[in-house]
Design a protein that fits this description.
The complex is a heterodimer of chains A (about 110) and B (about 120). Chain A is an all-beta fold and about 110 residues long. Chain A contains no helices and twelve strands. Chain A is about 0% helix and about 50% strand. In chain B, about 0% of the residues lie in helices and about 55% in strands. The chains are: A mainly beta (about 110), B mainly beta (about 120). At the A-B interface, β5, β6 and β11 of A face β5, β9 and β10 of B.
């Protein structure tokens, strides 16, 4: 079945450091890939998405490229801020789904220290 | 747009009591999802509806859990009787599925934090 695997956290960085959170997936067909972010005490919100191979999603300085050959969708940011501290979830939907069901990874906690 | 609305935001109850969580999806959305989040198990999909019809309830943990969507603007998740292991944050999310390829963004509510004593 479809699944998502993320690197374990927590990831602790100093402000302005480079961020990479690894995400790999297993899926049949042509899934769409997502990164969601959850700030403390809030629900999840979409950070970025990519719907086909080689697409790059980007938002708020974060980027991720859909790599079909390595079945990966790693999240990167060149210079993190304290306000980026949150839990990040990688997710996918099946390309054949018509109801938008998401399969989430386990989440990676990012802590950015001043 | 008010976003997805959930109530209550916090619920504390005693074991054996009935608990009802409520969700109002974003107007115009046709898919609704109920999730449970715990430290041990992460984020789990419990059930989802499309056009008010339950599509997949395989994530519902047991018969104590039930969900309804009587109309496009309201859904409930009920636990009866509740147990301490049901303590978690329950999220509702909605989306508008139009592409047929599952690319549509899910919008999450703020969650209901349930504590069963």
């Amino acid at each position: 079945g479809n699944s998502v695997t993320q690197m374990e956290g927590p990831v602790t960085l100093s402000e302005e450091a480079f961020l990479t959170i690894n995400c790999t997936y297993t899926a049949t067909g042509y899934p769409s890939l997502f990164w969601y972010v959850q700030y403390p005490g809030e629900g999840l919100q979409l950070l970025l998405k990519a719907t086909k191979a080689d697409d790059k999603g980007s938002n708020k300085g974060f980027e991720a490229t859909y790599r079909k050959e390595t079945t990966s969708f790693h999240l990167e940011k060149g210079s993190v801020q304290v306000s980026d501290s949150a839990v990040y979830f990688c997710a996918l939907t099946s390309g054949s789904s018509n109801t938008g069901k998401l399969i989430f990874g386990q989440g990676t906690t990012l802590q950015v220290k001043p | 747009d008010a976003g997805v609305i959930q109530s209550p935001r916090h619920e504390v109850t005693e074991m054996g009591q009935e608990v009802t969580l409520r969700c109002k999806p974003i107007s115009g959305h046709n898919s609704l999802f109920w999730y449970r989040q715990t430290m041990m198990r992460g984020l789990e999909l419990l059930i989802y509806f499309n056009n008010n019809v339950p599509i997949d309830d395989s994530g519902m943990p047991e018969d104590r859990f039930s969900a309804k969507m009587p109309n496009a603007s309201f859904s409930t998740l009920k636990i009866q009787p509740s147990e301490p292991r049901d303590s978690a944050v329950y999220f509702c999310a909605s989306s508008f599925s139009r592409t047929g390829r599952g690319t549509d963004t899910q919008y999450f509510g703020p969650g209901t934090r349930l504590t069963v004593l």
